Write the structure tokens for this entry.
Amino acid sequence: QSQLVESGGGLVQPGGSLRLSCAASGFIKDGYAIGWFRQAPGKEREGVSCISSGGVIRNYADSVKGRFTISRDNAKNTVYLQMNSLKPEDTAIYYCAAKYSCSGLPKAWGQGTQVTVSS
């Protein structure tokens, strides 16, 4: 059964780094694009980044460009989000989602992982 499981969240000081992982068994093998989204308290869920099935297409929200990097290891059925130079405004629950393409709508969601950036 295909599923998405996020990990790697936690508490980090401003300027610090975290690497999120999305174990996407089934979806990776089936050639899905994987996207990262986040939802801060009182705000709508927003797209952060997406990587296509082959890894050629990688896109980022303007708010994270130059700080976040998305990658995938198809052999490990895992997509990563390396987050550097973290800011308090990056605090949110981060979700990964499987999509037919980076321009499409999510088909399935993980349960989310909390990222808190605070001193």
Notes: The chain is about 0% helix and 50% strand.
